[in-house]
Amino acid sequence: MGLMSTVFLQREELQLNRKELEETRNELKLQSLTFNHQRFESSFYQLLSLYKENLRELSIRKVGSQSERIFGIDALNYLNKRFDDACMGLRAFSDDISPAAQDEYLYHLFSMIQSVYFRQSRYVETLANILILVEDELESEQRKQAYWRIVVSQLTAYEVKYIYYQALASPDYGVLRDVILRSDVLRARLATLDIRDDHKKAFNIVWGISIPKKRRPFHSPLSSEQVRLVRMSIQKREKEQKNNSI
């Protein structure tokens, strides 16, 4: 009986030790996850701060001037306007042109992008490093989307447009194209910008990434179903008025 009691107590003690060991493992795992999350967030926001600093320091020399320089957001806005003006003379891309004509169109488009959009390597590569950090450190696609939303929310329309054309014309910025492909929030943002449809088509031809056509966001306290019914009612009334006028 004494021997059996000893064995029983030893087994109970062993089970308690195993339970304590499992709890210790879980606690260490939780501490490790917390530490990794804190380390990631620290690196993420430090890079985001560095990105903003690089944006402020970004500068270009104004065309026709030897000394006048433009900085930050104003510089990107200036480049976007210059590019839009330059594109006015570029023939729009169409689906029915020959492969040779298509290549010629892409050649002129890429040459124009590279001549107007001066490459700001430190600025763009800081953004690329933020995206790489999110991609490499986070396993959950949901968490990646959440941090991509944070990044995109910090970008002005001028920045998004500049980054778009860098991703279109430069083979080096695969990470930017990958986020354009996978991030719904960035693709939705691109759909609100004034980017020519033939330039979006060029992105699809060269990189296989479809960019949504421009649309203006509709904000209303009505539900989507209410909006749909109202639009149907308007269309029906307009059709009846048209038939009556005939």
Explained architecture:
The chain has 246 residues and is an all-alpha fold. Helices cover 74% and strands 2% of the residues. The chain has helices spanning 2-57, 72-87, 99-116, 121-137, 141-153, 157-169, 174-182, 184-191, 197-207, 224-245, and strands at residues 59-61, 69-71. Strands 1-2 form a two-stranded antiparallel ribbon. Strand 1 (59-61) and strand 2 (69-71) form a beta hairpin. Helix 2 (72-87) crosses helix 6 (157-169) and helix 4 packs antiparallel against helix 5. The chain is extended, with a radius of gyration of 28 Å.
Main attributes of the structure:
single chain; 246 residues; mainly alpha; two-stranded antiparallel sheet; 10 helices; 74% helix
Write the layout of secondary structure elements.
Blueprint: H1 2-57, E1 59-61, E2 69-71, H2 72-87, H3 99-116, H4 121-137, H5 141-153, H6 157-169, H7 174-182, H8 184-191, H9 197-207, H10 224-245
Antiparallel strand pairs: 1-2
Helix pairs in contact: 1-4, 2-3, 2-6, 4-5, 5-8
What's a quick, concise take on this entry?
This protein is an all-alpha fold and 246 residues long.
